[in-house]
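Dear colleague,

Thank you for sharing your sequence with our group. We've completed the structure prediction you requested, and as agreed, I am returning the results in plain text so they can be pasted directly into your records. Please verify that the sequence below matches your submission; if there's any discrepancy, let me know and we will rerun it promptly.
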Amino acid sequence: MLYGFEGEVFILERHMGDTMNRRLWLVGLVNFLLGFATQGSNLFVPLLGAQLGASDSQIGLVGAVYGAAFLLSSLVSGWKSDQTGRLFFVRWGLLASSAAFAAQLLAGNVALLMLMRGMVGLALGIATATAIAYAFECGIDMGRFSSYGSLGWIFGAMAAALVEDIYLLFQISFAICLAAFLVSLFFQETTALHRSLSPKLFQVLRRNYRIYFAVFLRHLGATAVWVILPLHLSSLGVGKFWIGLLWGVNFAVQFVVMRYLEHYSEYKVFAFGQVLSFIVFVVFAYVTGKLPLVLVMALLGVAWSCLYVGALLIVLRSGEERGTSSGIFQSTLNLCNALGPLLGGLIAEGFGYRSVLFFAAALSVAGMFIAIPANSKEPSLDIKS
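Please find the predicted structure tokens below.
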């Protein structure tokens, strides 16, 4: 009888393990598909704006509209998901995102491009913050989860490099994101969520405000750079294929590095990402050759991996309001997506593309000093394993 009971327990444990592995695989697949669709749609938007006759500052405004919409929807959806559950927001956010990607085909002038990018930001914000909280509560390694998104960005960047037709990329993004929605139908709601939670945004924000602010400053500079970087590279004689390839290198490095970061102190990882970001932005201002650009893009991938995963783990491990925390985190990034492109366009128009890179480096330094007191609160900076 004892042997039979132990055998039943073993079978039950194996079944539970198989169910968990299947869930983790599906969650990773959705993050991969979402990254693929998002990056394939985003990469050449500045070039499309230029083709439609937009100035550098107007191109920045297009990015700002996208970021502001993403900010508002991720903040609200993450907060509400702590009370009502994740899956409603994940699924309908993915479905709305696929429709918004398709709607970009209607962008025949600058005003319509702004409108459609705003729709994309609203839809992606609904899905992204709650998908992060859902993945964390499923028990998935957040470094690995993030790496699947980077793998999707690789495919999106390479698709952009090979296709080059911006409107065809919008169609591909629609199909890929729709596939992500269909996969999400196999998700099950997590049991870890306490529906009695009534999270207060200000309390969650105050808990890790130094981390949020440090991330904000660094990413503000980065988003200012990203909006002008395709234009800067084009001015150096780099074609669309090489632009897509360089983005692919960046994301490939992220995919590899992110998978190993959860084994280390999130505070050390976060600090290293800040320091390396400063170095990379300064070097970027002076690099012109294609091979040096590849190396700098690889280092940028390391910097972002460390900063993103380190900060994400800090805020998710700080309390039970994970939907709210991830919503604030995503809102922080997308406040940068709203302001950074606008600043990048204005700085580039007034002082040139290289000035934007120096601006990003200066903000990285400021972020380092702001985060130092938060880093000092860590009980132990030893490697965890």
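Summary note from our side: The mean pLDDT is 80.

Kind regards,
the structure core
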